[in-house]
Amino acid sequence: MRTIAIMNQKGGVAKTTTSVNLAAALARSGKSVCVIDLDPQGHASFHLGLDAAPGSRTVYDVFAEQCTVDDARQLVAENLSVIPSNIDLAAVEVELSNTPGREFVLRDALNHWKLQERFDYVIMDCPPSLGVLTINALCAVTEVLIPLQPHFFALQGLSKLFETTALVTRRLNRDLRVTGVALCLYESGTRLAADVTEDLRLFLTSSDADTPWAKAKIFKTRIRRNIKLAEAPSFGQSIFDYAKTCPGARDYAELGDEVLAMAQAAGSPLPLQQNAA
Ligand SMILES: Nc1ncnc2c1ncn2[C@@H]1O[C@H](COP(=O)(O)OP(=O)(O)OP(=O)(O)O)[C@@H](O)[C@H]1O
Ligand SMILES: [Mg+2]
């Protein structure tokens, strides 16, 4: 079982597109997958065909301890479940602000319902911020996958993101590692994309071995810009249901294969209760 947060505090870099289509690729490979939509925008839920209307059970209710993850979970395709979100989730940032142990609410809910044990992959679509929702994701997973759009400021944002994972690793979840960077919205053949990718490679290879990103892999698959990927959400379909032969489907299928093939330490431990600060 692997737990992966798809994270980047920068907006619009393809976190949701990657969460949904990577999850769908893994599900099509026969893995049982649960997507947790941790963004109050609810885009991952929409993308997978769910409209979490007010009053329906969502991940907000899980945070508020008003329902179990099983009550909120919906099966959307073979092997693929979603715990949806809607704008209600925005309240969590405020409601938990003075709660001791607020970083561990999601982890404890997942551990309690043994969700991690029932899925091969749990994938969390994070919001574009480093607030309490993202910190909850980082405390509930062992892996971070960063979608990165290769442009001039991309690496600047990345250092803040890496600092946050280092802080979480030191204080809250020692099992957390950045395992991969996926280059998304990739413009093949441009100098800028190649330069940013090379800078990233140099940064990773020159990092200290004890940083949580020391072993991060830049996925070979480049997720190319493809209009079908932008159209699929409005049909509530993954790219494989919407246009299964388009370049976007091929790219996400390949990324799925790379994620499946990654050397993941067998029996990698779950974030444990004892990790609590
Ligand atoms: N490879 C791609 N080709 C074309 N369009 C893409 C691609 N990847 C993502 N998009 C589009 O770019 C926009 C941003 O993508 P997405 O919503 O996945 O980013 P995000 O990081 O989740 O954004 P936010 O920070 O708001 O959560 C969306 O309209 C999406 O459909
Ligand atoms: Mg998103």
Automatic annotation (TrEMBL):
SUPFAM superfamilies: P-loop containing nucleoside triphosphate hydrolases (SSF52540). Residues 1-177 form the AAA domain. InterPro entries: AAA_dom, DNA_Partitioning_ATPase, P-loop_NTPase. It comes from the Bacteria. Pfam families: AAA_31 (PF13614). PANTHER family: P-LOOP CONTAINING NUCLEOSIDE TRIPHOSPHATE HYDROLASE, PARA FAMILY PROTEIN CT_582. This is Sporulation initiation inhibitor protein soj. The gene is soj_5.
